[in-house]
Amino acid sequence: MKECRKPVFDLAIRTADMLVKMFGSRCEVAVHDFSDLKKSLIHIAGNVTDRKIGSPITDLVLNELAKHDNDVNDIANYKTQSKKGNVMKSSTIFLRDDENKVIGALCLNYDISLLMQFSGEIEEFIGFDDSHSKSENFYNSVQDVIHEMVEQVLQGFKKAPSLMTLDEKVECVRQLEDKGTFLIKGATDYVASVLGVSKFTIYNYLQKIRTINELHPEAAIEHK
């Protein structure tokens, strides 16, 4: 190694050691000196690929070195595999001297095999049954539940309750009945106040709706 290049490699070696300390035993960082490609590996922190000092350069790096120095680019986040079959996420940073000549490389390999296994298990756990399209909201009070259900139905009419026709108000009550709104105590009074009618009118709407549902259950199914 030429003396003028020593600071570059010293920094690369310190960086390699620090990265492995930071990311742990599944991380490996290798430093290569291209002055002798047959035994370019001059430092290795961590142990993922089972290589030793004096190991040769990789084929991927050789492909880059075949280019002109100005055309050699760092390579980030590519997939590699160790001889043991472990899948790794890898990156290569090329080291340059004062004249911008490529003189070596800092190569990072992170074994993601276990993470891939966890990923599969996590995806299975957080997956949903897409055949059932359901939504659920959570509230702090029963009043909030009633209010939200009424608001959801009213949005479908795109007009103020005061402008709704009799048939529209009956339809509004029917949709709320289908949602189970009137199972909640106090819902009748609230719906009556929103629609601008008496609670007895709401009772009449409900009686009419329930009678139709009993006599013509197929009609009720079509609405749902």
Automatic annotation (TrEMBL):
<feature type="domain" description="Transcriptional regulator DauR-like HTH">
    <location>
        <begin position="146"/>
        <end position="206"/>
    </location>
</feature>
<feature type="domain" description="YheO-like">
    <location>
        <begin position="13"/>
        <end position="118"/>
    </location>
</feature>
<dbReference type="Pfam" id="PF13309">
    <property type="entry name" value="HTH_22"/>
</dbReference>
<protein>
    <submittedName>
        <fullName>Putative transcriptional regulator YheO</fullName>
    </submittedName>
</protein>
<dbReference type="InterPro" id="IPR039445">
    <property type="entry name" value="DauR-like_HTH"/>
</dbReference>
<dbReference type="InterPro" id="IPR039446">
    <property type="entry name" value="DauR-like"/>
</dbReference>
<dbReference type="InterPro" id="IPR013559">
    <property type="entry name" value="YheO"/>
</dbReference>
<dbReference type="Pfam" id="PF08348">
    <property type="entry name" value="PAS_6"/>
</dbReference>
